[in-house]
């Protein structure tokens, strides 16, 4: 405990600028979908640079696997890995009827989201705070019968790129903070993901979109100031995953399951394929080994695992919704069922250890240190940090070092606030170690 306490001081002086005990602080969590950690390296981003000077910047952050939008956003809201929160895919599906719902339709399937893990809006409201959400994945659902007090879900076929809308949405949530006295709001922008998919992460179009994001970051901070919020509002800006270029052309050996010798779709009763680099299969009774053996090793860039043998670091195994066979490809490759059905130039959904899958992270506000760059950390840790800033007790989460849980720290509610710091400190500790390691990898 003593060691933890001294680490606690270390973290407090590292990332959190001042104690957050006097007046309750507010938190705005912003996600720019698919903003890869290094997107500011080849574009002038004066507003993101200024935010780093005025606050904390992480080298990069590591999302949970599967690196796609709804699952990783629900991790931001809950601090749980995907196998633990259960929103395992963008698409709701039913293996009995073979029905699947799109990303947008799945937003409205309550039982897909309300699955035992509470997002921070509900936890905050249960503890007397007020929360809101605009367009953030998971906003449309209710949780144990509750919804965020102020919320807005985007309409069907929404134009996620419109900069004027971005400004209006920003002013709307700042109005919620000022006029409704909300304590926490999550705000979602659907770019640069769309542009990254369509044109690829190395395209001039993506660089233009990063400029638009940068202008909007400036707008968000200006709007906070206009609404008189800067003294109490902490702004965290991050993303759900990165983006990588898809290899195209006749020389690329495509991965098409129907062409793999020994593999038959007639051995499979349900499949979730044609969704970028990842897929899941439910073999028919007695066909698991046949399907597995046919696919395993069939292509040098295809990874095939039985659910229970998944690599530990992916933490994508222990959930009933995950199907018995999990497939994913190496960066650059996508997974096709019968033939290619989408032709994106950029994709995500790959192993979360791949550098191209890492998002960015910035934070500014009264609680944060100024002009500080920290090493990488996992996005599960953002949830306990936000709970700490809001002064609320977090739900069970995966933030921090698991060893602290294992060492008997669970259940000491009297020191819960302190524990939060301990967890965060643990993260900062591992930052430093990993930072050294990662510098060699670049
Ligand atoms: Zn996304």
Q: Please report the distance between the alpha carbons of the first and last residues.
A: 35 Å
Number of domains: 3
Helix content: 25-40%
Q: Which CATH top level class of the largest domain fits?
A: Alpha Beta
- State the CATH topology of the largest domain: Alkaline Phosphatase, subunit A
CATH superfamily of the largest domain: Alkaline Phosphatase, subunit A
Structural class by secondary-structure content = alpha/beta
Which overall shape is indicated by the principal axes computed on the Cα atoms? Answer: globular
Please count the beta strands (DSSP E, at least 2 residues each): 20
> What's the main sheet like?
8 strands, mixed
Could you give the order of strands across the largest sheet? 7-6-8-1-9-18-2-19
**Ligand identities:** zinc ion
Uncertain segments: 1-13, 401-423, 428-442
| CA gyration radius, whole angstroms | 22 Å
Helix segment count? 14
